[in-house]
Design goal:
The chain has 153 residues and is an all-alpha fold. It has a domain of 73 residues: Orthogonal Bundle (Cytochrome Bc1 Complex, Chain D, domain 2). The protein is built from five helices and two strands; from the N terminus they run αββαααα. A two-stranded antiparallel ribbon has the order 1-2. A hairpin with a 2-residue loop joins β1 and β2. The termini are far apart. Bound molecules: heme C. Heme C binds next to α2, α3, α4 and α5.
C-alpha cells in the first residue's frame, strides 16, 4: 500500500464510523427514555367472568355460558352441578327422574356431592323435564330396516 492509498483507507474508515454514529444517534430511543403514553386497555373478559355482559344471558332458550336449557330451577342447577365438572356432562345425558336421582345419589356416595336439601326436588324436576330420555327433535329409532346377513368369504 502506498501512502495515498493508506490515506484513502483511513478516510473511508472515518466515514463509515461517522455514518454509524449518525445512525445510532438518529435512533433516539437508544438514548431517551420514551414514556409509554398508550392508555391501559383492560383485557377482554371471557363469558365465565361474572362481569361479562353475557354471563347469565339466555338466547333461544339456552343459557349461553353453560349450554343449559332455560327452565325452572336453571340457576340451582348451574350453582350445584357445574362446580366439579362441565355442564356438558349433564346436558349430554338424558334420563328419567329415577335415574337422575340415582346419578345424584351415586355422586353423593362416591364423589362428595353435597346434600341438595330442599332444592333437590326442583333440580331433579328440571333435569327430568329438560333432559328426559326421549325428547322431540331427537333422532327417532329406526323403524324399518332391511337387515341383511354378511356373507362369509
Ligand atoms: C362434588 C362434585 C360434583 C358435583 C357438585 C356434581 N357432580 Fe356430577 N359427577 C361428579 C364426578 C366426579 C363425576 C364423574 C366424572 C367422570 O366420570 O369423569 C360426575 C358425573 C356426572 C354425570 C355422568 C354420570 C355417568 O354415569 O356418566 C352426570 C350426568 C352428572 N355428574 C350430573 C350432575 C348433576 C346433575 C349435578 C348437580 C345436581 C352434578 N353432577 C354435580 C362430581 C360432581
Amino acid at each position: 500500500m502506498n501512502s495515498s492509498n493508506k490515506k484513502i483507507a483511513v478516510f473511508a474508515t472515518i466515514l463509515v464510523l461517522i455514518a454509524m454514529v449518525f445512525f445510532v444517534v438518529q435512533d433516539s430511543s437508544l438514548f431517551t427514555f420514551k414514556e409509554n403514553t398508550e392508555e391501559y386497555i383492560a383485557p377482554e373478559t371471557g363469558i365465565n367472568d361474572p362481569s361479562h355482559p353475557d354471563y347469565d344471558k339466555i338466547e333461544n332458550g339456552i343459557h349461553l355460558r353453560t349450554g343449559f336449557a332455560e327452565g325452572e330451577g336453571l340457576q340451582l342447577v348451574i350453582t350445584n352441578c357445574t362446580t366439579c365438572h362441565s355442564a356438558k356432562l349433564v346436558t349430554q345425558n338424558r334420563m328419567s327422574e329415577e335415574r337422575w336421582k340415582a346419578t345424584i345419589r351415586w355422586m353423593q356416595e362416591t364423589q362428595n356431592l353435597w346434600d341438595l336439601g330442599a332444592n333437590e326436588d326442583t333440580i331433579v324436576n328440571y333435569l327430568a323435564t329438560q333432559y328426559a330420555p326421549i325428547a322431540k327433535g331427537r333422532r327417532q329409532n329406526f323403524a324399518k330396516i332391511e337387515w341383511y346377513n354378511l356373507k362369509d368369504e
